[in-house]
Design a protein that fits this description.
The complex is a heterodimer. Helices cover about 55% and strands about 15% of the residues of chain A. By secondary structure, chain A is an alpha+beta fold. A 6-stranded mixed sheet of chain A has the order 5-6-10-7-9-8. In chain A, strands 1, 2, 4, 12 and 13 form a 5-stranded antiparallel sheet that branches. Chain B is an all-alpha fold. Chain B has a domain of about 40 residues. Helices cover about 40% and strands about 0% of the residues of chain B. The N and C termini of chain B lie far apart (about 105 Å).
């Protein structure tokens, strides 16, 4: 047992010595390899974290949101629509909602203006007051007690006193919100009394959401009904790392890595072949040569994987995925500052390890086996 | 006991020892990441509970990640005629469109007639 262990340890010693004979090449290889792992792991960790965050917080979203549609565009819901929805069996609460978008030229950003509905915990605003998201506070440089001035596209002016700023811990969902009183909202957007942006439904039995949505669509065929599951699925589709821009990034990194592995698989350098020939000539077994080269491959690939993954974790969870921010921000001028919940999916980690370590190690075994089984005299020449 | 001459050369560190040292450091960083992920649950749970309460109170439906246009701000409630409503292959104005995948049920609509 000890002899076998020592034998393998000596092979490992030789593998490390062989790597150290070409330090620049091997360090460069580890760096490039780690960079590929870093990119893949960063996208994977970020996508998983955002999807899980969305599922966790949007689990409290309205069960059904009913929107009126006219000529394929969004329309306002009326009192008759609200009454029709109230008459549906299985619906526990019908909540007409007022919210809309505003382009603010002063802050060069889009805000979401909303009227908070009467709830038990009570985020309430009186006439002339507003509660704003942390992004709005940053963009307009206002704080509680200061005045916030908004101008509508029709030229209507809204002056409110900032009552509070929503907690920065909720920035992921609230960064662009401006909560105002209903009278202020209707006057600002010139809305008549009995119309609402959409209607939120709460159902008695959550398992009947789809059935109630179908019944509601029969009662109000001019409306469309978006369920909570649809809302969560939308965010999941946005950040599924196999799709969209993430795939373009991964595709480039994977192609670069495939070229690297192919280069290794297509043959060894003359120096490497001569080295193997000398080892065979002095009595090394073919299995020992292959095992020694396997150690070399494992050392490089495992070092690169661990380094790349640790760097990706730090990038996503300690530095808030700052490398992705320009891509995610796009044309947005108002971007939330949000921490993500550190989370590692075991299956995705294992998949990443298999996809990055195994192909490289397998690719280098082919030329080594070919050289190790050839005549040493031929190989050395 | 044999005295060691001060002039005696030190044995260079074995390659396997160096490799073990390197992998101890790297594995330590990897395990530290796993431990950090495991221990961060408490703080995250408090933050998520606060956010969930706000979502429930205000009836919010989407994350506020893409505030550049109305149809990117609330993708789940966007108008039917808005850019890239049906997927990233439709005309898009902003980089956000390249992150949006086609809806899973696109093209699978069917007309159902009520049973007579």
């Amino acid at each position: 047992m000890r002899a076998a262990f020592e034998r393998r340890r000596h092979l490992l010693d030789f593998a490390v010595a062989s790597l150290l004979r070409r330090p620049a090449k091997n360090v460069g290889l580890i760096v490039v390899y780690a960079l590929v792992v870093f990119l893949l792991a960063s996208v994977m960790l970020f996508g998983t974290a955002v999807r899980r965050e969305a599922s966790a917080v949007l689990d409290a979203a309205p069960e059904i949101a009913a929107q009126a549609m006219k000529m394929g565009r969004h329309d306002m819901s009326t009192a008759d629509d609200v009454a029709a929805l109230k008459g549906l069996r299985g619906v526990r609460r019908v909540e007409p909602r007022l919210w809309g978008y505003l382009w603010d030229s002063a802050g060069a950003a889009n805000y979401t203006l909303k009227v908070p509905t009467a709830n038990e915990t009570g985020l309430t605003v009186a006439k002339g007051e507003s509660i704003i998201g942390e992004g709005v506070a940053r963009a307009r440089k206002v704080s509680p007690g200061k005045m916030l001035f908004l101008v509508s596209p029709a030229g209507k002016f809204l002056k409110t006193k900032v009552k509070a700023v929503l907690p920065s811990t909720t920035a992921l969902v609230s960064t662009d919100l401006v909560l105002v009183e209903e009278g202020d909202f209707r006057a600002f957007f010139e809305l008549p009394p009995a119309v609402w942006t959409d209607v939120a439904l709460t159902v008695t039995n959550p398992r009947e959401v789809t059935t109630i949505a179908e019944k509601a669509s029969v009662k109000l065929p001019g409306h469309r009904f978006v369920t909570r599951a649809d809302m969560i699925r939308t965010t999941e589709a946005l950040f599924s790392w196999r799709e969209g821009l993430a795939l373009a990034l991964l595709g480039g990194a994977l192609v670069a890595f495939a070229i690297l592995a192919f280069d290794k698989a297509s043959g060894l350098s003359a120096e490497e072949r001569r080295e193997i020939g000398i080892l065979k000539a002095i009595g090394w077994e073919t299995s020992d040569v292959i095992l020694m080269k396997l150690w070399e491959g494992l050392l490089i690939s495992l070092a690169a994987f661990l380094l790349g993954f640790a760097a990706a974790y730090a990038h996503v969870f300690l530095w808030s995925a700052s490398l992705f921010e320009p891509v995610l921000k796009g044309w947005s001028t108002l971007y939330p500052r949000f921490p993500l919940t550190p989370e590692i999916d075991a299956l995705e980690l294992a998949t990443l390890a298999v996809l990055t370590v195994v192909p490289y190690v397998a690719a280098i075994q082919v030329p080594i086996w070919r050289t190790a089984t050839a005549d040493p005299d031929v190989v050395m020449r | 006991m044999t005295a060691i001459s001060p002039n005696a050369r030190r044995e260079p560190m074995r390659g396997s020892t160096r490799a073990a040292a390197l992998f101890t450091v790297l594995a330590g960083a990897f395990l530290a990441a796993l431990a950090h992920a495991g221990l961060s649950g408490g703080t995250a749970a408090v933050r998520q509970a606060e956010t969930r309460a706000l979502v429930a109170e205000l009836g919010l439906t989407d994350l506020a990640l893409f505030t550049e246009a109305r149809y990117t701000r609330n993708p789940s409630l966007a108008d039917l005629h808005s850019a890239f409503q049906d997927g990233p292959l439709t005309f898009e104005h902003f980089p956000s469109g390249s992150l949006v995948a086609p809806p899973h049920d696109l093209g699978r609509g069917r007309i159902e007639t009520p049973a007579e």
